[in-house]
């Protein structure tokens, strides 16, 4: 079962890429706020919608990968979700209406929705409706390349530590059960672990990035120019 992700915890993540896996869903528990399913850093979470503005920003985003940033607090009603890299999917085109009868004037169009700005005003009995958030600015591909490189590097370091720990466990197990484990056996075990890393590291790291929604925001054109631009931005050239 996915763990609850509170707004305060999401705010600590800063600007982060997530994949939305559900629409805004009402909680089955009385008095609990609605939630939105999302994948954050490869983990399925249920984000607790602590304000109508946050719900409006995420309404209708199921299946999309978004670069978001949580601000404010749900305690004082200032919680907000800012969108920085909405996908190219837009709202469905408006349905055509039949022309008004002759002699009657067509009604004015409804006001445009402005989600993700301010909470609805007034305290009437009718609950505010969630609105579709507008598309955000184009993706910063260079920034995303930098973010993806860091994402993969952190998981690569974790895999390296896991491999070191695996070798220590094998050595401890062998000695605890009276099995030979001299330098030759240790080298053989290390080589076996290294072979497994060689065969699986690429797939493991790619799946981590894909499940976290990192791949959907990558540029479709050749990557080299973005890598070079990322190096310049980081001052490594």
Task: Provide an overview of this structure.
It contains five helices and six strands; from the N terminus they run E-H-E-E-E-H-E-E-H-H-H. It has 237 residues and is of the alpha+beta class. The protein folds into two domains: 81 residues, no CATH class; 93 residues, no CATH class. It has a six-stranded mixed sheet with strand order 1-4-3-2-5-6. The longest helix is centred in the C-terminal third of the chain and has 36 residues. The chain is extended and about 90 Å long.
Name its key features.
237 residues; alpha+beta; 2 domains; 6-stranded mixed β-sheet; 5 helices; 6 strands
Mean pLDDT: 81
Order of helices and strands: EHEEEHEEHHH
Whole-number count of domains: 2
Distinct helical segment count: 5
Termini, distance in Å? 45 Å
In total, the number of strands is 6
Rg, alpha carbons: 25 Å
Helix content: 25-40%
Coarse structural class: alpha+beta
Strand order of the largest sheet: 1-4-3-2-5-6
Percent strand: 5-15%
Shape: extended
Largest sheet: 6 strands, mixed
| Poorly predicted segments | 86-95, 113-133
């Amino acid at each position: 079962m996915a763990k609850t992700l509170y707004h305060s915890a999401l705010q600590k993540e800063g600007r982060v890429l997530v994949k939305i896996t559900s629409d805004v869903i009402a909680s089955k528990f009385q008095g609990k706020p609605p939630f939105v399913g999302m994948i954050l850093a490869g983990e399925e979470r249920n984000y607790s919608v602590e304000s109508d503005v946050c719900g409006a920003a995420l309404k209708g985003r199921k299946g999309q990968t978004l670069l978001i940033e949580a601000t404010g607090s749900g305690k004082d009603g200032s919680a907000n979700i800012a969108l920085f890299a909405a996908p190219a999917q837009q709202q469905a085109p408006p349905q055509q209406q039949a022309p008004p009868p002759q002699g009657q004037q067509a009604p004015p169009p409804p006001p445009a929705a402005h989600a993700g700005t301010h909470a609805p005003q007034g305290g009437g009995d009718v609950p505010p409706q969630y609105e579709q958030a507008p598309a955000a600015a184009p993706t910063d591909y260079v920034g995303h390349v930098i973010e993806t490189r860091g994402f993969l590097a952190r998981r690569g370091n974790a895999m390296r530590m896991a491999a070191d720990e695996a070798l220590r466990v094998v050595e401890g197990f062998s000695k605890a059960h009276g099995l030979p484990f001299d330098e030759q056996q240790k080298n053989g075990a290390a080589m076996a672990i290294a072979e497994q890393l060689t065969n699986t590291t690429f797939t493991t790291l790619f799946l981590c990035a894909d499940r976290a929604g990192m791949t959907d925001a990558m540029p479709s054109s050749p990557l080299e120019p973005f890598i070079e631009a990322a190096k310049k931005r980081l001052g490594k050239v």
